[in-house]
C-alpha cells in the first residue's frame, strides 16, 4: 500500500527528476494572446474574439465573448495573423512564446505574448476510486497528480504495475511503472502528456473476487430461471388436475 517504499531511511534527500515540458502535437488547442503598451499596435496579431448570444427567455439575451483558439493541424502547423503558417509541432509553449515574441518585436516595441495549452487531458482508469477524464490546468502534471485527481488507488490497486499509454508519431506506446520504486521519478513517463491514459491493474485477489462474483451471479441467474420454469410447470399441472 506504500508509494516509493524504497526510499532511504534518511529524513531527507534528493531524487533525480526528469523533464516535464509538454511538446505540442497535432490536434492541440492553443490560446495565444499578444499585448503591448499600445494595444492598437498588437491588435492585428490577435484573431478576433467570437461573440455568442444565448436566449435566456423571451425578453433577455445573454452575450458572451470567447477568445478563439488555434488548433494545430495534422502537419503540426498553425495559421497565425500577419506571420502566416508556423510549424509548432515539437515546440514547448515557452519555445513558441519566445519565437512569436522575437518575430513580433521586429515591428512592435516590447510585445507580451501568452501561450496556453487548453486541451490538456488525461484519462485515469482501473483500480482507482473515481475513474475519470482529468482536465489538466498546469503543464506540470505527474502520475501521482493523476492518481490524486481520481481519488487515489483502491486497496486492490497494484502500485507496482501502473500502465501509461501515450500517443507518439510512431503510434501508441505503453510503459509499466512501479510506484513503489523511487526511480520512477526519473522515468520519462512520470510526468504525463496530453491524451495519456493511466491504467491501474487490479491485484490477484481483486481478479479472483471478480470471477467469483461473476460466477455466483451466473449461477444465481440459472437457478432463478430453473425455479421459475418449475413453478410454471407446477402451476400448469395443478390446473390440469383440478379440471
Structure report:
- Helix content is 26%, strand content 29%.
- With 243 residues, the chain is of the alpha+beta class.
- It is elongated, with a radius of gyration of 28 Å.
- The strands form 4 sheets. It has a 5-stranded mixed β-sheet.
- It has helices spanning 39-42, 93-104, 143-149, 204-242; strands at 29-35, 50-55, 61-66, 70-71, 77-80, 84-87, 112-117, 121-126, 132-135, 157-168, 171-177, 197-202.
- The longest helix has 39 residues, at 204-242.
- The chain has 3 domains: 29-117, 2-Layer Sandwich (wza like fold), CATH 3.30.1950; 121-202, Outer membrane lipoprotein wza fold like (Roll); 208-243.
Structural category: alpha+beta
Low-confidence stretches: none
**Shape assignment:** elongated
Report the CATH architecture of the largest domain. Answer: 2-Layer Sandwich
Short descriptors:
243 residues, alpha+beta, wza like fold, Outer membrane lipoprotein wza fold like, 5-stranded mixed beta sheet, 3-stranded antiparallel beta sheet, 4 helices
Sequence-ordered SSE layout with sheet pairings:
Layout: E1 29-35, H1 39-42, E2 50-55, E3 61-66, E4 70-71, E5 77-80, E6 84-87, H2 93-104, E7 112-117, E8 121-126, E9 132-135, H3 143-149, E10 157-168, E11 171-177, E12 197-202, H4 204-242
Parallel strand pairs: 8-12
Antiparallel strand pairs: 1-4, 1-7, 2-3, 5-6, 8-9, 10-11, 10-12
Summarize the structure in short.
The chain contains four helices and twelve strands.
